[in-house]
Design goal:
Length: 1026
Amino acid sequence: ALETRAAMTTRRAALVAAASAVVAALLWQPTAAVDRSKFRTCEQGSFCRRFKSWIQRPQREEALWSVLPASRATTSDGGFSFQVKHRNEAEAHLLLQLNAYASGMVRFRLGELGSVYPRHVIPAGDVVTDPPPAAAADIKVADDAAATTLSFTSASGTAIKAILQHSPVSLEVSADGRVIQKLNARNYLNFERYRKPKARLPPDSSSDAKALPDQEQVLLDAAAHPFGLDTHGLWEEDFGGHTDKKPRGPASLGMDVTFAGDVPSLFGLAEHMTKASLPFYEEPYRFFNLDVFEYENDEPMALYGAIPLLWAIRRGAGGAPAIASAFLWINPSETFVKLERDAGAAQGTGPAHTWWTSESGVLDAVVLVGPTPAQVSGQFHALTGPGPLPPLWALGKHQCRWNYMSEKDVATVDSSFDKYDIPYDVMWLDIEHTDGKAYFTWNPANFPTPEKMTQAISDKRRKFVNVVDPHIKKQDTFHVYTDIRDKGMFIKKVDWRMMDDPSDVKPADWDSAPEKIPDPNATKPEVWNDAEDGPWDQPKIDNPAYRGAWRPRQIVDPNSPKSDFEGWCWPGTSGYPDFTDPKMREYWGTNFALGKYKGTNADTYVWNDMNEPSVFNGPEVTMPRDAIHPHGNVEHRDVHNMYGYYVHRATFEGLERRVPGDRPFVLTRSFFIGSHRYSAIWTGDNYAKWEHLGTSIAMVGALTLGGQSLVGADVGGFFKHPSEEMAVRWYQLGVLAYPFLRNHAHLETPRREPYVFDEATMLNIKASLQLRYQMLPLWYTLFEEYHRLGKPVVRPLFWDFLADPMTHSDEEAVENQIMLGDVVLVHGVSTPIAEKSEANVYLPACDGWYDLHSGAFSEPGMHKVPLTLLSIPAYYRAGAVVPLKSRVRRSSSCMALDPHTLHVYLNPATGQAKGRLYIDDYKTQAYQDGKSFLDVEFEFKDGTLRATSMRGQPPAEVSAEIERVKIFGLSKAPTKASLGTTELTAPRTQQLPAGHGRRTTLYSAEVKVVPWIDLRQGKDWSLTVQ
């Protein structure tokens, strides 16, 4: 039996009594909504506030930074470099690098020459692949006085032109003669070079005191100009009771980007809880990875991760096709992005203007030219690397809760799924399984024999996932803490002290005026007698010209002592490792070794939570910006948005080494560009609210556009408890639209495993999960395409139907619907049926659509669809062959030897369909040898199904057989079926229900294939119905 509520209450009381939990409870209090006072806005952050003022300066169109064309040089990576000079400086202090990549990208980088301090540059291979993408072939360079033009043809045949205007520096990129993006067209460029301590201007031969006696009148950048300069925050900044010391001074940068033409919608900018078609808020979108408690809908506030990739659709004019492009901003410091329209422009018309600003680092931007969505996605993965092929079990059902409290609790949940014949693949444990929140340990009272528990799960061919967070409990008996401490690999805090500025020299004329001078108004008294009174001395007064005793200017001592940074998180006082250090990542990975992480086995995988990083007593619940990463002496502000990336990368690489050849699985909450190479992602601590269910479609779609396909939202919401109807609707959406399918819930919520609901609800959830397992062959095939080609597994409708303008901006099509590959259209239901009993479903222009549940055929268009609690609207695209499995077992691994079923959804006009099936061992890296897999392409034509191509040979431990074929959309009901020359049992036929817009009758025919088609035997087979 499940644990009683009384037992659960007793356990919670014991947990709260623990000292570490008390600390966490005090700092992590539930509220009715997000506490906005904890988190900065653009106006509250000095660099963003400065940038907003900067772009409104007088005469903004006047050139400040200009390219020196004579300085052009060829770089080792096949690109070009140029020096860039400011008009009010004597020398060129910036270096521009321009790259044209063969896949169809133009990269624009701006860094500092001879910087006072090294500017942080992301190491090669961490985000952009190393070596970088292949340079475009045969780049033609043309120069004139005004511009340098690069012309090349992409590998897909797109003619691309990049025009680098010299003064002011700007870049215009076009594809096949159509301008798609303009960088710095509005002259918003800002680049704050590092200064010496407290200096107004950065070093330049023109900026010493003698040359510029009135430095306040110099127009240089957002941190030095004569237009009412806001100096607050240049050298230190306060927020939320914390002071951020900035001994290196201002270092922000920014630029405008215009998406040219008629741009109805912009997409992407993960992670924010907004609509899919990004709203043009007054407040800029913020990227600063944070632990945001109970985040709200329709907000540009920062959340857990940052992928500053913005997609744009440009509609065609005069019969030209619509095209897609994207812009990527590669900077891991705090970043703001503003979306704007021309004044007076109608909503969704004309060009889209944006500006981007980051606190520090370098300007590294990439124009992904497209011009098709598939090419944009391919370009992103050419730049950042392919995502791995996940193991099949990772696509099954994940069962999680904060927390399963004991070995008995785990066993009860596991056996209950079997009792009710509900499939699932993975059992998860949250923080309470540890010994006092010391990760890599077990609570000895509640988990005394973890090795038996994990093995019992493995024996059922299921997996285990344990949470391992990056905050390390400060405890001298905890070996992970002492190891990292003794190696000096914790992030440091600086115990700031002041010192005399050694560059501050006493002026030569400082002592020319004495402190006291004779009083000019004093006269010798007439009665004064020198003989009797002595010589008369004229009285002295304070000298108004006296400048005081000279003291050097005080600056922050760069050699101020450092100690390990300590913050509060779940264990109480914790240290935070410097995961930017490869040696730290290597050490971290060793802790997952089977002989070291006691109680785990090769079927145990890892969840990295709280890795923004979350610091309960830190500014904005995170790490202070002026903390120091000892690897490279880098300020945390420079790398903040990559901290979580380095954590889950270290975990992934450790699991790779743990069992060579295995496919690691890691889940992360915090992420950055490139996280797709190492982890799955979920949308964090969502709410059991209808609007959170609905907006999850947009959030998942934004993540997949950002290259992260193994993503999902907590089914049912993390906070609060869903109603029975909401739980059903969430599962119905999740099984079709969430590549990563996990149920998770807060500690204080009621249990919500599928079997604890009433019977009708449980059966609806069970049916949804069975559908997910039946569709696993399709999911897995789509993930192979993602791995090889970069195609998002789920994606917004415009990705597949760019020619259909409804997919650009229609509310239903854009916000409530999503595609699974190019095969399945899903319409989420996020309103109780009592309030809305019909759904407006838009079916994009193509050959037609088949209802996923009934097989009814519908023509493209907007249709009103009656709703029931049994399912949500979902459709197969006409012309598709879909691989499935009919036999659902307790886990995906138990289905490996089961044969396949093919559903063939014909284009009724032609009677044809095509599709694909990919098979390998579902769990190891063996497929990378180029042969240990099976990749089959199917075609149905003229009444016959056959394989048109076949590659590879799958291992013996998986099925490559087809036991059943069901064909939809036949104009007549067939009476015969044959496999080659062998006649089969007559097909079972059925008249399909009437759909929307179809007037003629269509039929389905199901053929049981005996003997099974063995795809290992090659493509010399055919199945015919007549």
